[in-house]
Fold this sequence. Notes:
47% helix; 294 residues; two-stranded antiparallel sheet; two-stranded antiparallel ribbon; elongated; single chain; mainly alpha
Amino acid sequence: VEMDTDDLPLINKNYNTVTQTWSNFYCTHKFWCTGDLGLFIVVLGLSFYALYVYLIALCLQTLALEDHKYIQAGLYAVGILCIFPLYITSYLRTAFTDPGTVPEDTSDFEAVDMRDETQKYCKKTGLWKPPRSHFDSVTRRLVLRMDHYCPWVKTTVGFRNYKFFVLFLFWTSIIAVYVGITVGIYFLTAGKKFTDILSTTNGRQILAVEVIVSIFGFVLIPFCGAHIGMTLKNETTIEGFFRENPYDIGRRKNWEQTMGKNPWLWFMPVPTTQGNGLVYPTNLDLEDTGTSIV
């Protein structure tokens, strides 16, 4: 690729001096959806339907009003009302957060000679291709630290929304376990025949939610474990196909690069990802400085 000197892209070469705040992610908030929103609407619809059934049909009408188990009903309701907002916020932030792309406005970066043979360019867009970035054929964009395109959120999972995606999987798994256990306890302690429970509208709806949540849990709990493992290794789904991983700088630092340094915010759907998505420290950098990788 031939470029004029005046057109050379700009980057910040020093990772340690990058201001690691949300305002320096150099992206815009857009919902990069493609095609229809069928799956997205299905997920939202099932989520709020399940919440309604759990709170109204199970906690209020069945446990509280019919069985007079007020403490059990209250504990169940408080539990789901603590978990559900974290789950749904993580899902929406995954969908509506731009995963990040190479910035067009380069005024905040130091000039680097892009004629260096080590620099790469995206053949599809002609843009400078930062490490770990890939061209997404669905959204037709060069995505920073691309992991994969997810049809369930109708967007690409990349640098800026990967934490939210991991939290979406995590809180979905927690809800699946929580609902599975609490509804199971209700069925076992109801003091009624199972056929009698299913003879009521509430009973059938509660069973339907149990089945739906169990299916989601069966699929997503292993998926959640896989992505937590990749976070601890500082590895994307795409990079999992490669033999070497130069970005593994130790489990704690790997985790903090995605989830942030404040443990109180690790599992909160707030932006705490470190860096700017354009440059990454490697284990070779740590070896050069004599820092151990643990």
